[in-house]
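User: I'm new to structure prediction. If I give you an amino acid sequence, what do you actually give back? Let's try with this one:
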Amino acid sequence: MTSKAELIFNPSLQLFAQTRAGSPLTVLSGSNNSGKSLTLKWLKSALGRSAYMIGTNRFYHVYHLSTGIRDPSQLDQFENQFQSNFNQENYNHEQNPFDLNQIIMGLSDKRRSELFELCGKLIGNTFSMKKVDSENELSPRYIDMDGQNLSVGSTGTRLLMTILGICMDERFETVLIDEPELGLSPKVQQMLSTFFDEPETRSKIFPHLSRIYLATHSHLMLSRRDITSNYVVSKNAATISIQRVKNIGEFHRLQFNLLGNSLESMYFPSAIVVVEGKTDHAYLDRVLQLQFPEKRIAVIHSGGDVKKKVHSLKETLGELDKSPLRARIFVVLDSVHQPGLRDELTKLGVLEENVVTWSQNGIEYVYPPKVVAGVFCASVEDVHNLSLVGDRISLNDITKTKNELAASVVSLLREDSDLPSELVEKLIDPVSAAIM
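Assistant: Good question. You get back a string of structure tokens that encode the predicted 3D arrangement of the chain. For your 436 residues, that looks like this:
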């Protein structure tokens, strides 16, 4: 068994902490047992008493609040307890000495009101502090949630209040949260992630926090404002690697992995376009990128079997006719296709108007004429004389394979390329209407 002393971090935690010192948010993701939680613990150990780690064991029950003066040595006690536990070779620290009662009672009246208001905004309930006996000023207090004691509210509500309450504690400069998504609905996860990720919102709610570290299994908790603030943690024997997400492709792969499926279509793109062949994919993928640079449209190559691919989407996404994505799923067919295919696609849930059929048999007929003319050293007027025989396309005594022509056309496409009206009317305009 590997001991803590034998663990090797790549890069070293000292270097990692230095590179993230000026970054407000760092998100660690990875599979179970990859070392995410351990990385948080090592960081907390190095950062000291001004940092607080919110472990996964944060399920608190609070009925009547216990009042009292905050112990001035509380942080020292927390720190000593954490370091003592952390230094034990066989102890896996998940505890939170700071329970929900202490969190609520330790905040100032102003910050407590802000906590209740923020939780109300996220959950949709109204929170306030009330006396058990309204006629007795010395009566114990409780947290009222729409007329009932918070103790009978959902676990997720108390989990959310615990995280936000600790983040509002102005004694901490750094907060490290292990699996912030625990017990929270996707909608609340998304909103909480926004509070952590957006500078303006964060500075308003948590102005004292210079750094937040998250270890998560949720794609909703990833940083979208700065994708390079996301890291993938993996473990191989005694080595724990912390690899930065460097580009949008790596970010998408991370999202899909967190969703449990490698299909790009699984991360709810702006639209999904299923096409028949390789050249259809190459061309339409580039066209849609140029037409909608701010959107992510997944063009999926079906390998010639669009029905099978759509059926796969249905198995993955659920009933397409009940899906919010339905209006954004398109299928593109050549003029020659299997009889009855359109009806079969609509039975699978694709909208009839979203099944696009070209008037001629081949994607080559909806290439931009000026671009095709340039490839074959011909005039635009001669493009209609294009000859397609099998895999060969000929014009002006020049012959190219379909793949060669597609590669040439794609390389010459520009944002202002004059696209054929059929392509615009049958695909570009409907996609625009669906996603804008």
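You can read the tokens as a compact description of the fold. Here is one thing that stands out. The chain has two domains: 4-259, 264-435.
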